[in-house]
Write a sequence for this structure.
């Protein structure tokens, strides 16, 4: 069964955060750290390296994207209890 993840990355040099969703979290983190990959504006604009600080799995892409939208709207601090 294919699972979907939402994940939060933190830049080790700028302390910025990025939230995204994927069906392969290891590959996606690698892409965010690859200077040749033309990915998101956030991870290209702010220096890395980007490290995975949180992830959660979901049984469907729709559920993962719904949670990703909630995190982006409210901020991940509410999710993490910070």
């Amino acid at each position: 069964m294919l699972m979907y993840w939402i994940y939060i990355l933190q830049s080790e040099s700028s302390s910025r955060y990025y939230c995204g969703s994927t069906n392969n979290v290891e590959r996606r983190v690698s892409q965010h750290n690859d200077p040749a990959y033309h990915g998101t504006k956030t991870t290209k604009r702010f220096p890395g390296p980007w490290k995975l600080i949180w992830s959660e799995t979901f049984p469907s892409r729709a559920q993962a994207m719904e949670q990703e939208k909630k995190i982006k709207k409210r901020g991940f601090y509410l999710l993490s209890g910070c």
About this structure: Helices lie at 25-32, 41-45, 61-74, 76-80. The chain has a mean pLDDT of 87. Strands lie at 4-11, 17-22, 50-58. Residues 32 and 71 are 19 Å apart (CA to CA).
